[in-house]
Each structure stands twice: as structure tokens, then as C-alpha cells.
Write a structure and sequence with these properties.
GO terms for molecular function: uroporphyrin-III C-methyltransferase activity. Helix content is about 30%, strand content about 20%. The protein contains eight helices and twelve strands. The relative contact order is 0.14.
């Protein structure tokens, strides 16, 4: 079983190892964020199984995905589990790896890293996640946590400081609350921010603003999921930053 990250969306950012494995797979289980352009790279004889999820609708539960992986593995198939970004960064790849090892220790599991959205989208827009004298650290957070795990916005607020670049995956739904709570906690209202829908793909859309005004700007542009949020001073280093140094609204 190969747990493979396909990167942030652009097929050109697929790793060579991922491409090699796509030529040998018997079965491909793929997520919603894996594009047709990438799926078309798999060998024609491979069985394609869609197991994608989106907010409020799952074609398969995570437990059902585990059982599919186990059944195909027990049958001796070479399985490619394709995930957007990196399988171990908010991709639940760790859970699948753990399940397979516990289910059958004799099943060989390989994890192939992919370019995670923070790195891929940041690079495409010319936004360094860290930058000497501007941002000394970067924190990757999710806008969705499992039920009972707490409010993801609270995690973001406690992680925020002016010298840290904050990247929120799947953050569109929590953006208004995130903006409000960050500012209420003392975070600068004029902190530069950007929301990027379908980053690195031909369908990419993005909106730059301050963290205070980003919710209304994203709503005005009618951004939809998947949308990545990047908040921090390094956002202004992007050649696409549309504002003068003294305005970000």
C-alpha cells in the first residue's frame, strides 16, 4: 500500500516517485482534491475508486476507507492511496498508516510525501513562509477538527503572533470567527492576509486584504472550498500584493 501525496493541485508539482507508482498500481483510491489531470496519469488498467469527502458529505467514512484498504491489501493488490497535498499534513494519512500496520503487520506500507498546500501556494504567490527580520516561524493549522476536539479558531488564536506566519487549511468556514477572535485577542487588525481558492490550479482565485476585512472580501468574491488562508507580514512580499505599504483594507 502506498500513501501518496499529489501536491497542491498543479500536476507539474507531482513527485517523480508518485508518478512511478501510478504506473504500477492495481487499485487507486483517490480523494476529492485529486484532479482528473493527475488521475489520467495512472495506468489504464488500474481500478479507480473514489473515496472523496467534503464538508457535510462523505462518500465513504474513514472507517470504510480503512476497510477498503485492508480488503484490497489482503487480496494481494498493489494499492495507491492518492491524497491532495502531503498525506501526513491534515490528510489523515497517519491514521491509515496506523490502521494498516495494526491490521496486518506483513503489509508493506510506503508513504510518499507531496508538496503541502502551504508550501506550494506560498511559493506560487511569492509568499515566503519565513523570512529573516519579518517572520521567524510558521504554524500550520486546520479550520476543521473532529467533534469534541475543541474549537479550531481557539487553537489559531493561541498560535498567533506578529512574527509568525499563520496558515489555515480548510479555513473558509471559520474565517469570520477567526478574524474576530484574532483581533479581540490583540492581533493587529491590519495584519496582511490572503485567501486562496484551488491554489496552483488553472481555477485558482485569490483575494488579498487585512485580517479584519478578509472575511467580507472573500465573501464578495464568493470563494468556495478548498480555500487556504495565509496571515502574516510576509504576505506583503508577494509581487501580487495590491496595496501600498500603508494600506491593506
Amino acid at each position: 500500500v502506498c500513501l501518496v501525496g499529489v501536491g497542491p493541485g498543479d500536476p507539474g508539482l507531482l513527485t517523480l516517485r508518485a508518478y512511478q507508482l501510478m504506473q504500477t498500481a492495481d487499485v487507486v483510491l483517490y480523494d476529492r482534491l485529486v484532479s482528473n489531470e493527475i488521475l489520467n496519469l495512472a495506468r489504464a488498467e488500474a481500478r479507480m475508486v473514489y473515496v472523496g469527502k467534503r464538508a457535510g458529505y462523505h462518500t465513504r467514512t474513514q472507517e470504510e476507507i480503512h476497510e477498503l484498504l485492508a480488503a484490497f491489501a489482503d487480496a494481494g493488490a498493489t494499492i495507491l492511496r492518492l491524497k491532495g497535498g502531503d498525506p501526513l499534513v491534515f490528510g489523515r494519512g497517519g491514521e491509515e498508516f496506523e490502521f494498516l500496520r495494526e491490521h496486518n503487520p506483513n503489509v508493506r506500507v510506503e508513504v510518499v510525501p507531496g508538496i503541502t498546500a502551504a508550501a506550494g501556494v506560498g511559493s506560487e504567490l511569492g509568499i515566503p513562509l519565513t523570512h529573516r527580520g519579518v517572520a521567524t516561524s510558521v504554524r500550520l493549522l486546520t479550520g476543521h477538527l473532529r467533534e469534541g476536539a475543541g474549537d479550531p479558531v481557539d487553537f489559531a488564536v493561541t498560535s498567533a503572533d506578529v512574527e509568525t506566519t499563520l496558515v489555515v487549511y480548510m479555513g473558509l468556514g471559520t474565517l469570520p470567527k477567526l478574524s474576530e477572535k484574532l483581533i479581540a485577542s490583540g492581533f493587529p487588525a491590519d495584519m496582511p492576509a490572503v485567501a486562496i481558492e484551488r491554489g496552483t490550479t488553472v481555477d485558482e482565485r485569490r483575494v488579498f486584504s487585512s485580517i479584519e476585512h478578509l472575511p467580507e472580501a472573500a465573501a464578495a468574491c464568493e470563494l468556495v472550498s478548498p480555500t487556504l488562508l495565509i496571515v502574516g507580514r510576509t504576505v506583503t512580499l508577494s509581487p501580487h500584493w495590491p496595496y501600498a505599504a500603508d494600506e491593506s483594507s
